[in-house]
Amino acid sequence: MKRFNYFSSILMMVSFSMAFTACNKNGTTPDGPGAEDLSGIVTEDLVLEANQTYYLSGSLQVKAPATLTIREGARLVARNNGEVIYILIEQGAKIDAQGTAQNPVVMTAEKESEGAWGGLHICGKAHTNLGAEGGMSEIGNAPYGGNDDDDNSGILRYVRLEYTGYAFDSEHESNGISLYGVGSGTTISYVQTYVGSDDGIEFFGGSVNVDHCVVVNCTDDSFDWTEGWNGTAHHLVAYQSDPTCDCLMECDNNGDNETAEPFSHPDLSYVTLIGNGSEENSRGIRLRAGTEVSLDNAVITGKPHTINVETAHTQSSLADGTSVLTNITMTGDFRNENESASYDSDDFLAATGNSIVESVEVSDRFYTPGKGAFETSSNWTSGWTR
């Protein structure tokens, strides 16, 4: 996770309230329907039709009360034009992107490599632990947070994002999907981020619930949370083959104040995490900065230090049972990095169903039949993921 606020001035370069053009880079009309170049600020409902290709030539920022609707099979392709390109859904606006397993919505890039564009950013009105004023999005400088934990920012269903993680400078890159104070009225189900140069999916507070999420080769953390996220997440897959990938999960409450309330405390279940075997990027799940968590039914392999506990409140929440780790099968080791450990590997192994094993059966990159995210042996990732 990397924190920054950047260039609201770049957004001001676009002076129109809703902009999209139907011209290619040579100024001529592209062949075929649905080949518009999209950019700018959207203030009225915008529909992207099924099975059409649209090009993102700059940032696309959706403001309340507009809804960006993306129908099944639509492809959004970020131009390789040197512009800062991302999609931002502001508070009170919505995205309704619904594909199918056979025909997902795809957000990708002309340049087929990590960091080609800036991904998807959604700002909601649910809680954070940043205080009454909430926060500002890392990209687009849009406000997020509030007291409406039922807030609805729309629907993502069968959506794949590719080649995200645009580098704004040498220190700052964007996530695949960033969820800022997103509420439980939002539906996020069957989504994938594929090949990115920052986190795959990151939660900044909020109460949003997610399911059937896949992150493949995002070179910072696969899943990341902070600022008080307390939703549920089930059927999660992270896969890393790139040796530069960092944590499978990086889990914070608040990096500036580990006892800030409400605490991050997501409820996770049916999880498969496959690491890259790197000795340099050796942590699998990193529990720190005061986070709490409930994790049940997980398979974790490919990281030498599979579960790592840091900071006082994170440790005490495990010791007193506020946080719960159960039915976890993993290779590697359990580490408590606190100077005085009140919850250690013996405590982990004494909890219901936990075991440390020599190896885990994995087929086809991340499929763990009968275990973790695939507890019924049905491969729900088939057809719409890469």
UniProtKB/TrEMBL annotation:
<protein>
    <recommendedName>
        <fullName>Lipoprotein</fullName>
    </recommendedName>
</protein>
<feature type="signal peptide">
    <location>
        <begin position="1"/>
        <end position="19"/>
    </location>
</feature>
<dbReference type="InterPro" id="IPR011050">
    <property type="entry name" value="Pectin_lyase_fold/virulence"/>
</dbReference>
<keyword id="KW-0732">Signal</keyword>
